[in-house]
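re: ur msg from earlier - yeah i can do the adenosine-5'-diphosphate complex, just paste it... oh wait u already did. ok heres what im feeding in:
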Amino acid sequence: MQSTEECASHICGSGDDHGCGCTHDHDAGLFRKDLVKSVFAGILVIIAVAIEYLDPLVSLIPVILSIIVLALTALPIFSEAYRGLRKGERNVNELVSIGILGAVILGEFTIAAEISVILTIGELAESWAYARSKRDIEEIIVNNPRFAHRVRNNALEEVPVDEIVSGEILLVRPGDIVPVDGIIMDGCSRVDESCLTGESLPVTKGMNDPVFSGSVNHDGTLTIRAEKTADNSAYAGIVRLVHEAGSRRPPTRLFIDRFSRVYTPIILGIAGVVLVTTGDPIRAITVLIVSCPCALLLATPSAVLAVIGSAAKRGILIRGGEFLEICPKISMILFDKTGTLTSGVMEVSSLQPAPGISRDDLLKTAGIAECTSSHPIAQAISRRCQALGIPLSCGGERVMHPGRGVLAFPDNEPILVGNRDFLQSSGVLFHEEPDTEENSAEIEVLVAKNQVFLGSIRVTDAIRPESAEVIRNLREFGIKKIGMITGDTSLAVSRIAGQSGINDDIIHSGVLPGQKQHIIDRFQKSGEKICFIGDGTNDGPALAQADIGVSIGSRSDTVALKTAPVVLMKDGLEQLPVFIGLGNRTSRVISVNVFMALGLNLLMILAAGAGWLSPAAGAIGHQVATIAVLFNSAAISFGNSRYRFTPSHTCTDPGCTSCEH
Ligand code: ADP
Ligand code: MG
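and the outut:
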């Protein structure tokens, strides 16, 4: 039997069941020992009851058997109650202990033994069902790669992954788990990244492709160069997040604390009233036994743990149960644009150099300024320079202006690359007219050197193919307000909004990263519950401000894993409706659990008070309620999800015969 505090420590999911202070231990070996002990005690009780039934005059043998049973099963319950009392906690073990002691004092030894055995066996079943909820989380943690095969002096050695430093050469054989994030130096193979992204189809990889820790190498042998240490690699980030998610104290914790303070005295009061009004101490004992609120206390954490683990295995990382529970309350969804509604893989589409400036000079100047930036615009410019064989020197200082552009000092002549507002406010004079074409799909990037305008570069950014479908799905959940917040000011904003089905009246453009947070705050103050989705570039404050911040994570960038409340590991928005659907279902399951637990507790207290339940039946009923809650939670599965997308295929090797093209 668990005390309120102990049940609550299940809720806080200390992540270390051995420290949860239950009367049993969750360790497999001890679990078996407890089971043997409980079954043995159960047999003794059956014999005692049978003897008492067959020959009520033989009273000594049942009493002796019952005392043995109580020694085996009731002592741990008493010691928990004593521990609680000493700490001054109102502890529900006290209720059971009073019940058992009461029966002993009345000389009802077999009743006391029955209660004690049923509660102990039920507790074991509970811990088994609870462990099932945590199964997926445990599996993720256990799969963390531990060893790597390092190539040194032409010899292969097996070393713990923690010893690997970046730059070392490692061998990954078929069937091996990739130990750290790295780059393939030799070989090609199909790699299963499902533990990172939930994507079940393996990806074909070859020379210079990145591989990520935790993924499984299928058929070829790969030689990789370690790019990160194990601790900074992709899988370690996932393990940390999932582990912490399982250990977080949910908001229900406060309620539990308050609840435990008043619950025990109230029940003692009810049992007292039953005793005085009916004069039947057995009824009062039954009230104490059935009133233990373990089912209620496990209603939320068991559901949350089950979902967090199985979602993580499908590439949806959720930092805590509160982000699931809030899903049905979401009234507005706000998207970042670049990299979120759009693919973020931009292309340079045209160059408009100012008079007297060559196209190559314009591109090269921009490329030099952008060479250290990871912004999609910077990458598009760098890629184009590379394709045209324009060499870029990367010396000097660079100052990023998030949401506006970059200021670089490669030599004495500062370069500015960014949007119209950025160059204007920096005092650059230019006469370039802004785009007016209705269907313009491009973002203009203006370039100036030494305050002299050199021209503009246009880049295109395609909308993600799934954006419109995802937004339609989100509307099906009854979320009517779907908007966009972006730093972009070009006509591309309204085009992307139109194509994806964003509400016209909730488009905020030209917003600097810090202001995104203020806009969300304003909406929240007017009563909206906000879900914000960003790609993680400059979106940190907005992700933190929203009621749920969802980041489209990337395997190579583990920043989102450290900060965002929810991370969709697969590049794209497809998992977003899956997450919201899962949150809605989890909330429903929690409501059913709470209703079931409260309802059964109340019914059983009434039945016990009315004398319709024997103490043994009460103990069975109490455990059935708790186990029903645990099974209801474990049954939340993805199998029933309405929103499942066919995984997109990433194999790019035309010679590959193992997948469909
Ligand atoms: P979003 O909010 O849509 O994700 P960002 O905040 O990343 O967009 O950028 C907003 C605008 O700022 C871009 O459309 C671009 O005009 C400008 N900008 C931001 N970073 C850069 C950069 N590195 N180079 C050039 N322009 C940039
Ligand atoms: Mg963005």
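cool cool. Residues 336, 338-340, 534-535, 537 surround magnesium ion (ligand 2) (CB under 6 Å). ping me if u need the other ligands too
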